[in-house]
Amino acid sequence: MSSVSPDKRRKMESALNQLKKHTVVVADTGDFNAIDEYKPQDATTNPSLILAAAKMPAYQHLLDQAIKYGIAKGGTEEEQVANTMDKLFVTFGLEILKKVPGRVSTEVDARLSFDKDEMVAKALRLIALYEEAGISKERVLIKLSSTWEGIQAGKDLEEKHGVHCNMTLLFSFAQAVACAEAQVTLISPFVGRIFDWYKENTDRKSYEPHEDPGVLSVTKIFNYYKKYGYSTVVMGASFRNTGQVKALTGCDLLTISPGLLAELSEDHSTITKMLTAEKAKACDLEKIHLDEKAFRWQHNEDRMAVEKLSDGIRKFAADAIKLETMIKEKILNVKNGQ
């Protein structure tokens, strides 16, 4: 192997392996096979991914385990369904943690997005279930919607309970600034959904990666965080193509779907580090502070972010309801001896 020139070796190396040298790669999936195949550091889940996985025959035993737990806990039908849902999310998380060396992100129900206290309570319940299974909270990120209430729930969880949070459904610069000020562990700004909005709401239907509005949004956030020394790390999320991923090489983390991980593993083009702390320090972004009123105003001024945040909450809530319906039917079947 030593006779192969470094240039040639680089050409032989997949884009995915090159990317892993500059960025922590996270699998955006509830499918364990994909995690086995692409060997990410961490994995993220959400209600939509868990719903999709729970419908797969390969994972029925996990759903059955959660239902047994929910029934055994007793209480009203609502309580049994809620306990089953919590257990199911954690059960998937536990399986994922057997396959990744790092952390798993587990999401708090999107229907709690405007209730700070309920989000904190649900997060602590999920962490307790992980700890009952012998998993330290250090290996779990609790995902919360980046509403004002969600960001304050994240602040409380980090400061008072030592629970690490992943702020999701993040589309505006105001959301990113508020998360940094709350000193949450990690944010997941959504690249693809921003790109989708601009395609649907402007005359522009395609973008080169370096001018893609989603890529520009994450680049700005990354530069701001690094310039002002915030501890919160940036995990670009929701990608539509590998061009977007490559344009964010150097971001702290990137969470990527199995389909795009496959494309990157078969791509042998050279990857260049695009985001660096040095470039960030040289950028001309001014430091701002946002209290609740300033946050709400600045976020409200970004039509794309307002629409995508509310749309994201609705979609995750709809999938949580579908999952609940599926669980209700299965609980009923078990009780009826079917």
What report would you give on this structure?
With 338 residues, the chain is of the alpha/beta class. The protein is 57% helix and 11% strand. It has 16 helices and eight strands. Strands 1-2-3-4-5-6-7-8 form an eight-stranded parallel beta barrel, surrounded by nine helices. Helix 8 (148-161) links the parallel strand 4 and strand 5 (165-170). The protein is globular, with a radius of gyration of 20 Å. The model has no long low-confidence stretch (mean pLDDT 95).
Helix and strand arrangement:
Layout: H1 6-12, H2 15-22, E1 24-28, H3 32-38, E2 42-44, H4 47-54, H5 60-73, H6 77-97, E3 104-107, H7 116-132, E4 140-145, H8 148-161, E5 165-170, H9 173-181, E6 186-189, H10 191-201, H11 213-227, E7 233-236, H12 242-247, E8 253-256, H13 258-266, H14 277-282, H15 292-300, H16 303-335
Parallel strand pairs: 1-2, 1-8, 2-3, 3-4, 4-5, 5-6, 6-7, 7-8
Helix pairs in contact: 4-16, 5-6, 6-7, 6-16, 7-8, 9-11, 9-15, 10-11
Strand content bin: 5-15%
* Total E-strand runs: 8
- Overall mean confidence score, pLDDT: 95
- End-to-end distance, in Å? 60 Å
* Helical fraction: 55-70%
Q: How many helical elements? A: 16
One letter per element, helices H and strands E, the order comes to HHEHEHHHEHEHEHEHHEHEHHHH
User: Which regions contain 5 or more consecutive residues with pLDDT less than 50?
Assistant: none
**Per the principal axes of the C-alpha atoms, what is the gross shape?**
globular
Biggest beta sheet attributes: 8 strands, parallel, barrel
Could you give the order of strands across the largest sheet? 1-2-3-4-5-6-7-8
Radius of gyration, taken over Cα atoms and rounded to an integer in Å: 20 Å
Structural class category: alpha/beta
